[in-house]
Amino acid sequence: SSVAFSSNLYFAYSSGYFASNSELLPLLHTWSLSVEEQFYLIYPFLFLLFFKSGKKTFIFFLLVILILSLVLAQFGGSLLGKWNFYLLPTRAWELSAGAMSFFLGRGIKKQFYSKWISELLTVLGLSAVFLSFLVLDQSIQAPGVWCLLPVIGTILIILFCRQGSLSYFLLSRKYLVFLGLISYGAYLWHHPLLSISRHFVLHPSYLPNAVTFVAVITSLLLACLSYHFIEKPFRNGKLSLK
Question: Model-level pTM?
Answer without folding.
Answer: 0.86
